[in-house]
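job 3f2a | input accepted
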Amino acid sequence: MVGTVYVGVANYLGAPEGATTNGFLRLAPGSDDWEQLNNGLPNSVEVRCIVVHPERPDTVFAGTQKGPYRSDDGGDNWRSLKLPGPLQIVWSICLDPRNSDTLFVGVEGFAIFRSRDGGLNWEKLNVPTPKGVPEMPFPTRVIRLVIDQSNPDEIYAGLEVNGVVRSLDGGDTWTDISSDLLELAKQEHLQSGEVTDDPNEGMMDIHSLTVSRTHPGVIILANRMGLFRSINKGDNWQEMGIGRFSPLTYARDVVASPHNPNCLYSALSIAAISDAGSLYRSNDFGESWQRFDSNLPIESTLMIVAESVNDSKRIYCAARGGQVFGTDDDGSTWRTLPLPSGIQGVYGLACS
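job 3f2a | predicted structure (352 res):
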């Protein structure tokens, strides 16, 4: 149903003792009450990504700790789209705009799968491991998959903590496009080794990618060190300088509006676990940024932002600690919609 908001919750390192770090919740249009969805989903479901079909709002995809799931009735009922091999923790899903029966899934452990028949059958794609990767104490996550709507054969995958890879032929072959990020990491202010002693860690700690259909070949990237842009399909990268506009520069999400080709949104915070977040918007494709959330009391890391594909005035964002905020009038007024008490660990968010 148009106007529905979905939130996915999953466990995270550093979660408070006793917090509920699992669940898939839905907010019906006009309601202030969240409802838990579970019919057909795994027990104690952990949801790290949610995708609403752009043309069929009742079709929803969820990435869980036991693979991808699909609902065709707005979340009332779910069925598994089983990946081959052992159970896979899904971090990202994207649909081919030419044919929604072609979908891509990115999982923990660094693998990307493709289905051409709506998830009945899958093939594991041959994706190279980027060079210069720091040794992390957790498996690489394919945290974001995006397709260039202006040329759907171009697919980009952001890896945590592992850089960026690209396919220019619909997923058949892939190349590493992280080398210029490593060059940027030679600059002292772009070095960060919080988990390891490797100064490349921060630049390879990708959180989000986005592309705009009217800016072909341009990719915007969000990572621990801020926002970065490539104008040549990832061959080269440049720092966008978000610190000129925001005191918070840890970038967890960046999204291009499906309605306004020059509009970008970014979720900015202090760190992975923090007590402050902010939502910024650019109306000139990243040349300048303004705080968009009307200084809402965001009390933890802002994890994700989602704009409705049906209504450009409907924008929602969610913080790790369980706060959800939304506007249905392009930011003139905001709703504060906290998740039920004790639920933390927001990763997924979508609104139809």
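job 3f2a | The longest helix spans residues 179-184.
job 3f2a | closed
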